[in-house]
Amino acid sequence: MSDAVVVGRFAVAGRPRTKGSLTPQMSRGGGGKLRVHLVEKGEYSVPWKKTMIAAIRHEMNLAAPMMAIGLKPPYAGPVEVRALFLVDRTVGVNGEVWPSHRTERPTAEDIGDLDKFARNLLDALTQSKLIADDRLVTSLRTYKFWTPAELAGREGVYVTVLADDTTVIPPEFVWMLK
Question: Would you list the domain boundaries of the chain?
Fold first, then answer.
């Protein structure tokens, strides 16, 4: 991607949370018909998504960057999303890092899966109206690291959304074309 247009670039402070489970809820519609819709459950995931949505809208002043390049939000073209999730290690009352958090990378069970972090982020990108729909994401690069000591107190997600003008298969996959 050469000289990619930045659709959005923002940071959201706080503990990244995975997307919650969807559970079916039934309600009566017009004419007494039963309707089923999915409701997201999650003590932490829904508040985190709302935090991301508010931060995206605030940090982007949503319309300003797009208006500068002649576009109106939400962006409706293909996008590449790059996201870095930083997670603080948990320290016990004795001041020692939890044993499950002494790993090189944040893979402890209580941290969450990277794909579910990404799903929550993609929902926030859509619900904040930065992009029209998460189906427009054609490239997704996500990373999950412990918050480095020099960035102490900066746990959260750091995101760049680019217009994706890629028209060829990336070089790292050329092996499969042979």
Answer: 6-177
Per-residue pLDDT at 92 = 87
Superfamily of domain 6-177: Holliday junction resolvase RusA (3.30.1330.70)
Cα 126 from chain centre: 10
pLDDT band (50, 70, 90) for residue 1: very low
SS (H, E, C) the chain: CCCCCEEEEEEEECCCCCCCEEEEEEEECHHHCEEEEEEEECCCHHHHHHHHHHHHHHHHCCHHHHHHCCCCCCECCCEEEEEEEEECCCECCCCCECHHHCCCCCCCCCCCCHHHHHHHHHHHHHHCCCECCHHHEEEEEEEEEECCHHHCCCCEEEEEEEECCCCCCCHHHHHHHC
Q: What is the pLDDT of residues 56-92, one digit of tens each?
A: 988 777 556 556 666 667 999 999 999 999 999 988 8
**Is the peptide bond prior to 74 cis by the omega test (within 30 degrees of 0)?**
yes
Q: Could you give the 3-state DSSP secondary structure of residue 133?
A: coil
pTM of the predicted model as reported, rounded to 2 decimal places: 0.81
Q: What is the mean pLDDT of residues 16-26?
A: 69
Strand partners, 26: 36
